[in-house]
Amino acid sequence: MSSSLQAPSLRVPTIGLAGFGLVPALGGAAMAQEAAQPTAQLPELSIQGAAPSPYRADSAPMPRMPMTAAEMPQTVNIIPRVVMQEQAAATVRDALRNVTGISLAAGEGGFSGDNLTLRGFSARGDFYIDGIRDAGQYTRDSFFLESVEVLKGPSSVMFGRGSTGGVVNQTTRQPLATTQGEVWLSAYTPMGLRGTADVNVRAGEVAARVVAMGTRIDAAERDHVFNERWGVFPSITFGMGTPTTLTLSYLHQEERNMPDFGVPYFNGRPLQVSTNTFYGLNQTDRERTVTDVFTARLEHRFEEDVLIRNTFRVAGYSRELSATAPRLVQNTVARGITPDSLVNRQPQVRNGYDSLIVNQTEAVLGFDTWGLRHDVLAGVEFGRESSEITRFGQTGRPNASLLYPDFYQIGAINQTFTSDIKTVADTVAVYAVDRIRIGEMFEVILGGRYDVFSAEQDNRYTAQTFDRTDREFTWRAAFVFKPTSAIRTYVSAGTSFNPSAESLTLAANNANLAPETATTYELGGSWDVMDGLRLNGSVFRIEKRNARTSDPANATLQVLDGIVRVDGFEVSATGRITDDWNVMVGYTRLNSEIMESNNPAEVGREFANVAPNTVSLWSTYNLPMGFQIGGGLSFVDRRYGNTTNTVQAPSYTRLDAALAWEPDEGALRGMRFQLNALNLGDARTYETVYTGHVVPGTGRTFVASVAARF
């Protein structure tokens, strides 16, 4: 492709900015001052070559590593903002449908918000924002994100505790060097509206950006279920274009939802009732969350190969949940489902508050020794986390008709206080990773991290306390061979650890247990088949040889006698097939097995909530006159809801499609008109699975959007 670009004048466009009320006065004054200056005409530039595929975001540096995503010796999937917008993906959960090897999970057992398993292991506590832990229990919206990165395999050497199956890192929209903006408005069936705005202004060495969102969507074919959120993400960078930069950002998000705990199991399978059947209660069931995350990042580049940065974060997450977990009244279904069959509305009522204070200092260094090139990242991290949860019991929730539940049914509900627990945990860690380049064809990556993780739990209801301190070293090593510039292969190994207080909970049965540890072995590679299209593949094994299981001598305690293992492989392709055809496709196979357990019913069984096969596909094609068509699918195999494999959710295939138009000339230039069909085939999907219930996904949904960019 060949094009001639006329360099713009120094005037900064102001179209529409004042109308949104999002531009600070400082930015407006700076623009007026610049407009008063004489314009400078630059020579015409001629640029040859095709633009990179918008689906390829693997050239970005990885958090806590001295390399890019494409250079990582492990599987990394990245969903860029352009894909999320093409798919009308409003949440991180929506974006993760593009990643195979993931299963969504229900929020129960004291937890709510986003929850998932990654390569077979729970990743509820493995969400991050710009490389710093995002500990809250809430629905993560995509409005302020530039991309969602999924690093698969143990990553404790980078992120500390957890991360056995991998981590999910959310990369935020940071201030830019140019003045620009965009606004999106979307309408949903059966009823819903969503609006987002993103405005960036630069004035000299200062750039400011504000992203805002408001959403109210009714879940298609799930009666009475809705999600309502609003949020804002302002950020400002001082020292733009200089060796020293300071970036401040603040995320505030609030949500008000009708929680959906789906349907119970019957004979080991999801209860077969109408998809829209909902067992919650009006004016009783509710979910409220408030999320606040402030981050300050200071960076200074001393010279080309020396960078020092310090990141400080303070965050608070509050939540209030009153939900109905449906459970069958067994004596009413003993002879099968009848009009007299009943469901017990089991109350799930709790309030909570989580907080986080983290300071992380890192140095990124590049140097040569004895003919070897070293790229080193070393850091030290201090953090304090706390979690408070108050639980309540309820009586008086009336049983529901299994076939015809009454959402407006009234009961004499009586609520009692049952538990008040606070846990505080401190982390001190040092870590380093060295990438050693041996000529043009070979690399060795070595890394290590030492964590001191101390937790203390106080049950303020029973006056019972537990405390534990774990000291753990984790490592990773990899050997990379690049036979050509287009092919990169690797063999790697790494470890992770899961302390008893990993999710800031302790109990009498695990307070004296050392952490579980896991080791992963992975063989993989990538191949740039053509300009812009990359194939990736890997085979791997993750094994815990000291998994928690019940103590055969005392069933009230746990011991580290279990062995669990996941073997798998995956392949994917991302990028551009032709100038107009982009694709993102992947397949993962997981074989999970409980090898040894003190519960005989678990031995030889699969893990809970692990789909043996998952497939994802999204592709778009650019047509003449600015039109674009797109479509894809996600296949999730059957999953068990427990480790004894007695309850199971069936497999499903969800189809999505999109049609868009971006006029490239005339009065509508800069606009985008888009129509999405989500779950086009109206398949019965089961997006979240738990031991006692399974939550159906939404039915066929149409989304009409209009966007303006300036």
Automatic annotation (TrEMBL):
UniProt-recorded name of the protein: TonB-dependent siderophore receptor
UniProt entry keywords in alphabetical sequence: Cell outer membrane, Membrane, Receptor, TonB box, Transmembrane, Transmembrane beta strand, Transport
Membrane-topology descriptor: Multi-pass membrane protein
InterPro entries per UniProt: Beta-barrel_TonB, Beta-barrel_TonB_sf, Plug_dom, Plug_dom_sf, TonB-dep_rcpt-like, TonB_sidphr_rcpt
Pfam families per the UniProt record, alphabetical: Plug, TonB_dep_Rec_b-barrel
GO CC annotations, alphabetized: cell outer membrane
CDD domains, sorted: ligand_gated_channel (cd01347)
SUPFAM superfamilies for this protein: Porins (SSF56935)
Limits of the TonB-dependent receptor plug domain: 70-167
Domain TonB-dependent receptor-like beta-barrel, residue spans: 242-680
Organism: Neoroseomonas soli
Family, as annotated: Belongs to the TonB-dependent receptor family.
A single MF term (Gene Ontology): signaling receptor activity
Residues spanning the signal sequence: none
Subcellular compartments: Cell outer membrane
GO biological process: siderophore transport
Transmembrane residue ranges: none
Record NCBIfam families: TonB-siderophor
